[in-house]
């Protein structure tokens, strides 16, 4: 047993010391009729060689992006992960530690989270950020619940251009906590702000938009914040952190809370998890903020150090009166994103954002010259856009596979009126040749 | 001064840590594409060369303590060894570079693993169905209570608005219940540290939705009346939730489902060996009895007609908890862990976890009070009450253990034990390690008598000494700011 050091002799010596005749005697607390009388019906044990080859075989049944060029995004993105990220998060002093309750031996973790919080603020233009949450979807739900506790109101007005899965998660949380999610419609692929305004009333806790939105389009957000604020509601913006290399951040358009999906920042797609919920807000709301926070302080010798702080908001102290039930954050994923942002730096992130912008627009313009496909909506966008197809998206994607290409998302899956529409994503990973191959495949 | 400057303090304009390819398509100014109004002004991010990035984070890692560094008996957290093969498996490109919106027939291998993982966990729990979506134990608890809530709504019992928790429960239990719109009633533990059945019976009514228990409980004791408790709860029409944080004690020996539990969550990062990551990512799958299956989050992962598939057409579902399928990277590691152990191996995990805890308990109680004496399961709670009388508190003992090279146990939890030291050795520690730790505990107990000051001022050999947490909360310095900002 490679993971259990106790030998037969060890066990005997230990039992003697305890004064027990057998190991099963140690389980005497469990009533006999509740002790399993048969082995668990699960496979194994497999040796390291066997488990590796079993897993490799299964992994090969998946068509992954190592040997396919992908134009699929919709919330999970194929961005480049610099080699520094794996080198750092593979250090077991980080990944085999836990929540830094003992700051004296956790300064590495604590300082890196403090840096993550700062990077999140720099990126989003917000004043404070927490130590991260599970993913953007639950972070949006937490943001809306936070707005409810600040305003005492229970209605959440959400643009239908927010990621459908995020809205579904928000709806689940809303139902469970006795709140109500109200969806504002869209004009084409942009939020119908007139309807959003009308729906925002004295009952509204928050107004939620995403920018770029689910369709990749940049929303016209200049009035969104002031309209929400006029009704006494909070303005919550979700965004793509890569876009913030070029695009104006939520702090610029007066968002009260900003949420972003951090997966783009150096995290593998891993079939959609683990992810990284970036959560930032105005400083005046910091005491209502959910999740862990790290603060700077000094030790008894006056040296600067970092520690978990504002813990009186949290479940282990406040129990049922906590701001949230959240216990852990996504520390290792947050660390990965901090290494990513530090490695790229200002110039690197601007460059990645520009590569996405240029290549996506090149792809869009090339597609707009096709006779079979078209670009039905005219809206400024960052790295994703909508293509109208003359055939079912499913069928096109199946054929693209022959070219080792994974096509875009079938929008009909989430928006029935957009059947035969494909959401196409182009990141810095795609080359001009791959874009051409994709466009040829669309035209085929 | 600071031990390692912040990355922002090491920044020098014009540096970058990675090279990127040139733009290989015709390039235009960004404003031509998105309009000047959509562009941001300044972007403040640090600028470092690659070696500076690596040295910075390497230096930070050297100020961190993990399971790979040494013994980490943090009670309730099951800080066991994280097998390295599992890291390699999660990183296979066929898993790590897989997009969740790929067509089902392009990710058969992954769906097969997720489906099998559901089956394994259901068998281990003694339950009928599993969702892998919850990203952490706390979200698992939330999912479980949502399932209960939906069940009661459907059964016309929406009036049930109370969740009962014992006073020894994890803080997440009442916090989750509040998140789910419930009122919380706390019941005191009996003198033996177990649920007091008559106290429980006194609180049960047709307004109670569920009782949340941890079994073994946070004192490291098995709720031996669990069948009677379950009977009482179900007779009143309420449901029983089990916090599975302590599953490591009972793998292959007892199944919560067999004792009447209706829903429970696993903490894969505790029980099934995936790393804790410095505080996440975790994974908190929920296992349920058959009557709750219709309410499980969508999509569910099914197997029919020789194919793995996703089912989103489930009108009674509570909805989604995760935008995709949960923390798959963590699930993969635990899947590999379960297969590596097999049925006998999992049972041996529990046996040795309990053996190690009892061995340490036998040694510790020669110098420390143990309020709930007798045998323990995978962990035990000692008290520094005796040392407190000498002016040395549980926190001081925890800090002094750092000087001896160990990570401290959990302190001041559960709340019902004064000066609590909650110690969980796990099965992956050798008897030599346990002996060395026990010697340190006893040495500190002697120091508390002979030289309490050295304990009170510990730790002495760390990069920083004790931090001023009051100042941290008062000053609220939560980010770096440019000098002068």
Task: Produce a short descriptive summary.
The complex is a heterodimer of chains A (444) and B (485). Chain A has 444 residues and is an alpha/beta fold. Helices cover 36% and strands 15% of the residues of chain A.
Kindly describe this structure.
The complex is a heterodimer of chains A (444) and B (485). Chain A has 2 domains: 69-80 and 345-443, Aspartate Aminotransferase, domain 1 (Alpha-Beta Complex), CATH 3.90.1150.10; 83-340, Type I PLP-dependent aspartate aminotransferase-like (Major domain) (Aspartate Aminotransferase, domain 2, 3-Layer(aba) Sandwich), CATH 3.40.640.10. In chain A, strand 7, helix 10 (224-230) and strand 8 form a beta-alpha-beta unit. Chain A contains 14 helices and 16 strands. Chain A is α/β, with parallel strands linked by helices. Chain B is an alpha/beta fold. Chain B has 16 helices and 12 strands. At the A-B interface, helix 1, helix 3, helix 4, helix 5 and helix 6 of A face helix 1, helix 2, helix 3, helix 4 and helix 5 of B.
Question: What's the SSE blueprint?
Answer:
The complex is a heterodimer of chains A (444) and B (485).
Chain A: H1 8-18, H2 23-26, H3 48-59, E1 69-70, H4 83-89, H5 92-95, H6 107-124, E2 128-129, H7 136-151, E3 155-159, H8 164-176, E4 180-184, E5 186-187, E6 190-191, H9 193-199, E7 204-211, H10 224-230, E8 234-239, E9 257-261, E10 277-281, E11 294-298, E12 304-308, H11 315-318, H12 331-368, E13 384-388, H13 393-400, E14 405-406, E15 409-410, E16 421-425, H14 432-443
Parallel strand pairs in A: 1-14, 3-4, 3-7, 7-8, 8-9
Antiparallel strand pairs in A: 2-10, 5-6, 9-10, 11-12, 13-16, 15-16
Chain B: H1 30-34, H2 50-62, H3 84-90, H4 93-96, H5 108-125, E1 129-131, H6 137-154, E2 162-166, H7 172-179, E3 183-187, H8 197-203, E4 208-214, H9 226-235, E5 239-243, E6 263-265, H10 268-271, E7 286-288, E8 300-304, E9 307-311, H11 328-364, E10 380-383, H12 385-388, H13 394-403, E11 410-411, E12 420-423, H14 431-450, H15 452-456, H16 469-475
Parallel strand pairs in B: 2-3, 2-4, 4-5, 5-6
Antiparallel strand pairs in B: 1-7, 6-7, 8-9, 10-12, 11-12
Helix pairs in contact in B: 3-11, 5-11, 6-7, 11-14
